[in-house]
Amino acid sequence: MNRPITVRPYTPDDREVWDAFVEKSNNGTMFHQQRFLDYHPAGKWNYHHLMFFEGPTLVGVLPGGINARGEYWSPMGASYGSIVTADISFEKSLAIVDAFIDHGKGLGWKHAYLIPAPIVYTRNYSQHHEYALLYRKADFELHYISHAIDLKRGADFLQHFDQTARKTIRKILREGEVTIRESDDYETFHRILVENKKRHDTTPTHTLDDLYRLRDLMPEKLRLNMVYHGDTPIAGSLLFLANPKVVLCFYNMLLYEYEHLKPVYLIMYETVRWAVENGYEWVDIGVSQDTKAEDPMTPSLGLIGFKERFDARGILRSTYHLSL
Fold first, then answer.
1. According to DSSP H, which parts of 226-300 are helical?
2. Peptide bond into 75 cis (omega under 30)
3. Is 321 exposed, middle or buried (0-12, 13-18, 19+ CB in 10 A)?
4. What is the pTM of this model?
5. What mean pLDDT is predicted for residues 180-206?
6. Is 159 found in the same domain as 107?
């Protein structure tokens, strides 16, 4: 590396350059793009996105912002954040981390929290940034256990689901009483989502208007599948096509009065089938925490057991904390 790394805040004029950089990067996702972050109303977050340069060349971006306590968080208003680069050397990764630390100290930040996407999202597996953070004495605030399905099985994926899942799916496909297809019926899906979340004493992350805005901003990054019993919609799954490697099941929801028809089994089958057919390498089915437990890291053993029926395995979603 011949030139020092410099850093400057993002401006709206950088939008196209930023998003193009993320699209071509080694570890970026849709959550790192300004197109995604634009679904939030202006002023909702105190954003402070950063761009890193080696001479005139953009070598890294970091979406994030400042919370009410004066702490830097990446992501802010998204699922994954942290530093996005090409497949670069460790030396350059360390220089970018050092530039970030110097920038934060210069602005008087005391703490920074970064949540990178799990390693399966990287095009070429690399944890240079994570090790650079740890080398600069970052610690961990939290680890969550997430689950993802490795699509290396290809078209034979169903053979690697457990016996219950295989039997259930084959019965559904054979009888044809329950069907699944792509849909644009976000209104019905959101109604199911709200009813489902209410059962668990929570509310959805996204309003219906949020989903419409995301669909309009990134139509190629969202896929909505709806499950029908006859003509009646009974379940749905909203997929985020996070990057060329990973399909993220952001929401899998059903009306519980139809739970006996096992629509989620059909959702999982169709999600994996479609992802394999379209060249993805992983299906991320999300974190598996017991959200009612006092310890936020508490695993939901029942949820994990259900996910493992579909050949899923655990991957870490970790929050790195830097004292500046």
1. 263-277
2. yes
3. middle
4. 0.93
5. 90
6. no
